[in-house]
Write a structure and sequence with these properties.
This protein is of the alpha/beta class. The chain is about 30% helix and about 25% strand. The protein contains twelve helices and 21 strands. The protein has helices spanning about 20-25, 35-45, 65-70, 80-90, 105-115, 125-140, 175-185, 205-225, 255-265, 275-280, 315, 405-410; strands at about 5, 10-15, 15, 30-35, 55, 75-80, 100, 120-125, 145-150, 170-175, 190-195, 230-235, 270-275, 285-295, 300-305, 325, 335-340, 350-360, 365-370, 390-395, 395-400. Helix 5 (about 105-115) packs across helix 6 and helix 8 packs parallel to helix 9 (about 255-265). The model has no long low-confidence stretch (mean pLDDT about 95). The structure holds ligand LLP. Ligand LLP binds near residues 60, 163, 201, 237 and 274.
Length: about 425
Amino acid sequence: MNHFEYRAGKLFAEDVDLTKLAEAAGTPLYVYSTATLERHYRVFANAFPAGTLIAFSVKANGNLAVLKTLGQLGAGADVVSGGELKKALAAGIPPERIVFSGVGKTPREMKLGLEAGIHQFNVESEPELEALNETALALGKRAPITIRVNPNVDARTHAKITTGTSETKFGIPWSRARDAYTRAGKLAGIRIVGVDMHIGSQVTELGPFEQAFARMAELIGTLRRDGHDITRADLGGGLGVPYRLDDPPPPDPNAYARSITGLTKDLGVELIFEPGRLIAANAGILLSRVIYVKDGEAKKFLIIDAAMNDLLRPALYDAHHDILSVNEAPPGTPRQRYDIVGPICETTDLFARDREMPVLKSGDLVAIMTAGAYGAVMSSAYNARPPAAEVLVKGDAWSVVRPRMSDDAIVEMDRLPDWLGS
Ligand code: LLP
């Protein structure tokens, strides 16, 4: 459920009229809904027993205002870089609710985490374990760790976002997990606290989670018999969301929670989750204006002012996003098939192919839906385009939470070497 809906023929974000917002803040514009973020967080958190840590995956949406909104509800953060760690802390998320994931943590980033006193590092390889040990010892600290184990389970999602099979770079292979824990147990700079896994993103069935968590439960038993003190199980993120409003929804958090709690209730561990998309995706849209309607030989193109530099998912994963006309078309409005494209000089700068829409004209507004996760965070300045600005809505209030860069600011990012003069 989200809070983007038509009122008297106009699309609103909560109580904010998107037509007026586009005039005031310009387009392309990411618009996030506080009420939707809060609702998604609460539905997920309330599905689990008190004491479960819900560490929002900052990679999905790292805007400080979004992080602070969630942090105030009790969310922690799952971070994968020094930058994300600093953002989570700057948003007021306490270090004891922060987990640090990722396959390539550098000693500099480890130091940041150790000095902040984060909840745990999710270690993804044997060399990382050694490096973390050395970094912790140099600081006179012990790093709390889980080892991310790769359960070799196929999450049956898009190949480019599958992480839990042995073909991918993630986690320590199942066959070496026990040895890695034995080694970790001998390192003075390391304190083992639990186990971790994450099998993929946009997972729309419970089966793969059940298979993976059953394997994890088994591993916890083995590790405890080996003498390790396993008190936490980090089960990652990955639960999918509906991208097509008329598709059957993926399993809801309550069904997911019931099945997981069934598998983990006797383990006596603190559960940790790292949801990203589930919380943010349907809490955000990308608002864009039609620049031109172009008649090609074989097609009609809707050229809009958002592009693949703003929202990369369609170009990168062939992802589907529903696209709505901000002015609701009255019944009987003629419809037309368009390729909806951005201004970037690439054929792949295409949001939707042959998409049936009400007939639109230059100046009309469209809303690209389900863009709150992996949207703005993946944007770039390709074609020297300043990435879309971001706005957070709360009731009838709105605020620019990432201003639009000017063209001049883009130019000023570069420096000339002495030999080229100024
Ligand atoms: N934890 C770990 C260790 C992860 O690698 C990820 C996502 C998450 C949690 C959060 O997963 P979520 O709950 O959001 O599914 N850019 C792609 C998605 C990449 C996901 C990477 N890892 C997309 O736009 O679909």
